[in-house]
Design goal:
The chain is α/β, with parallel strands linked by helices. The chain has two domains: 118 residues, Nuclear Transport Factor 2, Chain: A; 55 residues, no CATH class. The chain contains six helices and six strands, in the order H-E-H-E-H-E-E-E-E-H-H-H. Strands 3-4-2-1-6-5 form a six-stranded mixed β-sheet. It is globular.
């Protein structure tokens, strides 16, 4: 039995297939970040409506999305930057070319095996928590503190020293690991 809601698990499988296509073309797999990474690590305790991706090769990833049946929404009120698959209710969008603007350690990116045998890359839980804390510290996203706390509570095995350093970097030293305990 899966720990994720069915539509999210289906989207993960499709993302793994898209990622495998990108890798077969000789490029690095896109990295899952943002709300979808939160949902992944929280076992769907925190749900998302989109998949945010980071890749240095947006053109290659978007071609792979198209090859897998994704389309750009059209018409009034549609997302113009993202991609939608007709069978999914989740949008996919490339949101950056460098993981947390180059502040995250690429070596900490996790590779996850999907059930069909493909793999996908996801930001480390430490960098994800630090990102949530950075958004919280900005004052623009007060709900991000709860997300960071939930991720910290649910996920086992994080590197607390790295996590504290990354939180301090993302929050201009205003917060640290003690603020999410």
């Amino acid at each position: 039995m899966s720990i994720w809601r069915p539509e999210f698990e289906a989207a993960l499988e499709l993302f793994a297939s898209v990622s495998a296509s990108v890798v077969r073309r000789g490029f690095a797999a896109p990295v899952l970040v943002g709300g979808a990474a939160v949902e992944l690590y929280s076992g769907s305790a925190i749900a998302t409506g989109d998949f945010d991706l980071v890749t240095a090769r947006q053109d290659v990833v978007e071609q792979a999305l198209q090859d897998h049946g994704f389309v750009k929404p059209r018409g009034p009120g549609s997302l113009t930057r993202g991609w939608i698959h007709p069978d999914l209710k989740l949008g996919f969008e490339v949101v950056g070319s460098a993981l947390l603007d180059g502040r995250a350690e690429q070596a900490r990116v996790r590779l996850i095996d999907a059930s069909a045998g493909d793999r996908f890359a996801v930001i480390s839980v430490e960098d994800l928590i630090a990102d949530r804390m950075g958004q919280y510290a900005s004052g623009a996203a007060p709900d991000m503190l709860a997300q960071a706390q939930t991720l910290f509570r649910l996920y086992q095995g994080q590197d607390d020293s790295y996590l504290d350093r990354r939180i301090r970097e993302e929050t201009s030293n205003d917060y640290g690991i003690d603020d999410i305990l």
